[in-house]
Design goal:
Blueprint lengths: L1 H25 L2 E8 L3 E5 L4 E6 L6 E2 L4 E5 L2 H29 L5 H26 L2 E3 L4 E6 L6 E2 L4 E7 L4 E7 L11 E6 L5 E14 L4 E8 L10 E6 L7
Antiparallel strand pairs: 1-10, 1-14, 2-9, 3-5, 3-8, 4-7, 5-6, 7-9, 10-13, 11-12, 11-14, 12-13
């Protein structure tokens, strides 16, 4: 009797598990999704100086190549002109030494020293030109200002963060899904994203699947593109629904 009861219970549990798996297989699988910008950057100062012009309004849009920040570089400009004058003088001395060497009125050592001095003066000019290029920070892509950490006419230090920017292209959906989904979840798999802020649903597809599983949560990070997402902005969130591809354990 006891053996019959245990056998019957085992059969019932097996059937319940199978029925539960069928119900789970019939449902869409949902996970939370966060919209992140396709590209973002923190703009920092490459030199210490005073800002004379800056896009300091949050939400202000710009195109690639536009000037985001301009510094007062009058001192650097003066140093560049000084370096160019010293280079010109050193090159003239080198040319004179070379002509005297041909007339056997100057030795090889004098010519070599003049050449070294000319090379040093040229490198100083290149250095000053490089510093001058840092006087203006241009946008690396089409985007918008999301955070401002400095203002025009403010003096800043080298390496100080000035602003944060994001691209204007459609944001990407980022999700953490159970690692067991890796059995069927690959790049190209479609999903349906329902955004909390808009209440609308959008079609998307997986573009990236992380190569590392979090051993604590047993989840893996994935990323996807969202179609017709011009009204969406980074920071919005919602639910991403997947239809199971194949049979899952």
């Amino acid at each position: 009797m006891r053996y019959w009861f245990m056998t019957t219970a085992l059969i019932l549990l097996t059937r319940m598990h199978a029925d539960g798996a069928e119900v789970e297989n019939s449902r869409d699988l949902r996970v939370r999704a966060l919209l992140s910008p396709a590209r973002e950057a923190v703009i920092s100062s490459q030199l210490a100086g005073r800002i004379v012009e800056m896009k300091e309004q949050v939400g202000m849009s710009f195109s690639r190549g536009d000037a985001l920040v301009r510094f007062d570089c009058s001192e650097l400009d003066a140093r560049l002109k000084m370096a160019e004058a010293e280079q010109q003088s050193a090159e003239l001395i080198l040319k004179t030494k070379q002509e005297l060497f041909k007339l056997q009125s100057a030795g090889e050592t004098e010519v070599a020293l003049a050449a070294a001095a000319a090379a040093k003066a040229k490198s100083q000019t290149v250095l000053q030109k490089t510093l001058m290029e840092a006087c203006e920070i241009r946008a690396p892509f089409d985007g918008s200002v999301t955070r401002v950490a400095a203002h025009a006419f403010q003096s800043v230090n080298q390496g100080q963060a000035l602003m944060e920017i994001v691209s204007l292209t459609s944001p990407r959906a980022r999700m953490n899904v159970p690692s067991r989904w890796l059995e069927w979840l690959k790049a190209g798999v479609q999903f349906r994203l329902t955004v909390d802020e808009t209440g609308r649903s959008y079609t998307g597809r997986i573009t990236l699947v992380s190569a590392r599983v979090d051993p604590v949560s047993q989840t893996v990070e994935i990323e996807g593109e969202v179609e017709s997402a011009t009204a969406l902005v980074a920071g919005m969130s919602g639910y991403a629904s997947f239809k199971r591809v194949g049979k899952q354990r």
